[in-house]
Every structure is written in C-alpha cells, then in structure tokens.
C-alpha cells in the first residue's frame, strides 16, 4: 500500500514525491491527517463525556464550539490536544497510550505558547488601536482554548494543572464581565463557556477551601448554573457556599441557628423536576430513558446527602444518610456494570458521596475504590484519582477523627491532600 501511494503521488511540477526526499511534505500530510482524526474523535466521542446528557446535534460543543473551530487555529489545536489526552487515558495498549500522551504534550506546549502571546496582547492593550482590535470574540476564543486545556488536564493522572487553567478561565470571565460593564452576557457562546467554568469551579471546591459563590468581581455563578435543565450543580454550589459561610461564622465565635432543611428539600425537588425534563430529548428507548432516570435519582440522593453533610452534620441523621447511600450505591452499580456505557461519566459525584459515608465499612470501601478505578479507566477522567486518594486518607484516619466530617477532615488536611476535583 505504501508503494502504491508513492507511485501515484505527483507534485505540481509532475515529479513524483519521495517519502525519503520530501520528509517535510510527508510529515505535514501525516500531521494534517492526524489532526483531522483527532478533531473527529473529539466531536464524535469526547464531547459526550463533557455533558450530563449528550443530545446529539443539540450538544453545545457541536452547535457553538465546532463552528468556532473553523475560524480559530488555536482552538483547533487545543481540541486536538484534548482528543489525544482522551485517547491516551482510555487506551489499553501501553505503546498507543504513550504515543497519544506525547502528542498531547507537544500540542499543549504549542497551545500554551500561542495563548501566552495572545493574552499578553490582550492584557497589554494600552493603545486605542489595540483595544479596538481586541474583540470580545477574541477573548471568548481564548477562554474556550483555556477551558479545553483544563479538560485535557483532567485526563492526565495525578495532574493538578487543571487548577492553573481554571484560574486563568476565571480571570478571563472576569475580564469579559468588566468589558460588558458588569452586565451578564446574553449571547449563547458566552453563557455556555461561563457555565462550563462554573461547573468546574463547583466540583473543584466541594470541600469549600474557598467561597465558590462568585468570582472576585462579584459575578454570580448561580445565574449561569440555573439556566439549564440540570440544576443539581447550582444547588451543590449554593450548599457549598452556605457551609463555607457557616464555618467562617463558627470560626469567628458566632452561634449558628439550626438551618431549615425543608427549604433545601424544596430546592432539591425543583432540581429533580427540571432534570427529569431532559429525558424527553432521549430516543424513545426504554433502556436508555430508564438508565438516565436512575442517574438523576443518584444525583438527587447524592445532593441530599451532601446537603446534610454540609449543613446538618448531626449523628441523628447518620442512619438515614446511610440508607440514602445504599440507594445511590445500587444505582452506581447498575450503571457501571451495564453494557450500555453512555452514562458512566455521570456517576463520579454520587460515587464520591457514597465513599464519604462508608468510613467504617471496609467492604463498601473496597467496592467504591474498584468502581472508581473502573469508571476512570472507561472515561479517561483520571483527575478523580486525587479524590479517591482523599477518600483513602479519610478512611484511614476515621478512627482518629472522632465525629469529624469528611469536609472538616479535607479542610484540616488541605496542604497534604491538595486540590481535587470530582468530574
């Protein structure tokens, strides 16, 4: 086949192209072919794992980001890198995994150089001319590239660089906010990208190391997280913010009034109702619709448990929370053990919550650990490895921690645990 291709390849002057002589041209052709395959892999496979429910052609990654790729070489480059990271993270062949890891590393470095240059232009735009040429689209393009870099790092085992990229995303969001004179952006692309950043901010701050309610400029994440059917994330963000506020008040010597959990139950019921509205966008297949409903159930109970862990961590609730976790665990098992793998990326948060409630149950711990490893291998989201490590430390020290919650434990051991994200 190689010989046939060589014989039939003619350059513009009618001379045959030699793979040995025209190395640069051949490498360029191979690079272009690889780039196209990586882009195809991203939009056909990877984007399905970046949303709770992949609704085909309506997926924002396809409707909003794919058209932008045609205009932005930097975004095209970063997306190719993310596709390579996913292939490296999910490949069972060591040589193939290593190959794509090198591709990702090379593309990431090139993308960072391009972004660094573009950011310097953006931040150093001191003249009227530069400010005029520095359009919002350019800033959104850089935000999209940086967000994609963040997602790439979520596929790299033990990497914490996702946090660096997320901070850069936050800075760009704040710059967009300042540009719009502190008005919330209304265009679909801006709202989608900011919502993605808010998602990562929420699940990268479950232990409440910082107040997640807003950016430094006061831009409220909730308005973006509440703008779609899946509002569990918005509720989790609000719960984390409230817990953080309570913790600061206690540290300051203030007394706290027992929270009204009924109000949180009502919010959770509303989130559940909105999430079930997503089922109608699925194909009319009993198996698919049934499985996604169970995923919604898992997030309902996981968010419920999280709310009590954060806001009412009393021993009197322990039995009920353990019963909820039994329900979550059975759902997680049904998803991870199914031959239909479309929703396996949706189980990490519920699975993590189960792990936080089994500090004294060695058998459940081993099952949770195995489910984490299987799910990471299937999805490529090895960022969850750090969260699993946090659980292992919590389990190990549970006998010494008394009634300390996992949130208090994580906060007290922040320096040793480091940043972790559930995704």
UniProtKB/TrEMBL annotation:
Any one GO CC term of the record: nucleus
Protein origin, superkingdom: Eukaryota
Presence of keyword Methyltransferase: no
Family annotation (InterPro entries): Fun_TF
Full protein name: Fungal-specific transcription factor domain-containing protein
Swiss-Prot/TrEMBL keywords: Nucleus
Chief location of this protein within or outside the cell: nucleus
Signal peptide, first to last residue: none
This protein's record includes keyword Nucleus: yes
Organism the protein comes from: Penicillium cataractarum
Subcellular location: Nucleus
Pfam entry (one): Fungal_trans_2
């Amino acid at each position: 086949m190689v010989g046939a291709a060589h014989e039939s390849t003619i350059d513009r002057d009618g001379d045959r192209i030699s793979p040995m002589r025209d190395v640069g041209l051949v490498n360029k052709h191979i690079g272009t072919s690889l780039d196209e395959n990586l882009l195809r892999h991203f939009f056909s496979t990877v984007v399905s794992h970046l949303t709770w429910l992949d609704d085909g052609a309506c997926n924002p990654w396809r409707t909003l980001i794919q058209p932008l790729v045609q205009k932005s070489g930097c975004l095209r480059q970063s997306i190719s890198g993310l596709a390579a990271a996913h292939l490296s993270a999910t490949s069972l062949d060591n040589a193939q995994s290593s190959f794509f890891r090198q591709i990702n590393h090379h593309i990431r470095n090139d993308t960072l150089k391009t972004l660094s240059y573009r950011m310097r232009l953006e931040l150093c735009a001191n003249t009227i001319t530069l400010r005029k040429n520095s359009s919002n689209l350019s800033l959104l393009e850089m935000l999209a590239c940086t967000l994609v870099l963040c997602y790439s790092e979520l596929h790299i085992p033990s990497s914490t660089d996702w946090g660096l990229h997320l901070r850069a995303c936050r800075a760009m969001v704040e710059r967009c906010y300042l540009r719009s004179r502190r008005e919330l952006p209304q265009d679909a692309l801006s709202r989608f990208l900011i919502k993605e950043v808010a998602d990562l901010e929420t699940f990268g701050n479950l232990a409440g190391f910082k107040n997640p309610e807003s950016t430094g400029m006061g831009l409220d994440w909730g308005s973006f997280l509440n703008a779609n059917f899946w509002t569990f994330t918005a509720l989790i963000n609000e719960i984390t913010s409230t817990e953080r506020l309570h913790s600061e008040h206690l540290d300051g010597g203030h007394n706290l009034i027992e929270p009204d959990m009924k109000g949180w139950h009502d919010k959770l019921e509303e989130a559940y109702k909105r999430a079930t509205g997503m089922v109608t966008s699925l194909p009319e297949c009993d198996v698919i619709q049934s499985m996604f409903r169970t995923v919604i159930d898992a997030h309902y109970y996981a968010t419920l448990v999280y709310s009590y862990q954060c806001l009412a961590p009393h021993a009197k609730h322990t039995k009920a929370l353990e019963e909820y976790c039994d329900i979550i665990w059975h759902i997680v098992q049904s998803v991870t053990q199914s031959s239909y793998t479309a929703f396996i990326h949706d189980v990490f948060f519920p699975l993590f919550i189960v792990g936080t409630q089994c500090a004294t149950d060695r058998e459940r711990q081993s099952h949770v650990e195995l489910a984490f490893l299987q799910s990471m291998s299937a999805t490529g989201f090895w960022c969850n490895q750090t969260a699993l490590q946090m659980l292992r430390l919590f389990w190990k020290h549970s006998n010494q921690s008394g009634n300390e919650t996992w949130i208090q434990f994580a906060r007290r051991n922040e320096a040793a645990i480091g940043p972790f994200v559930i995704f």
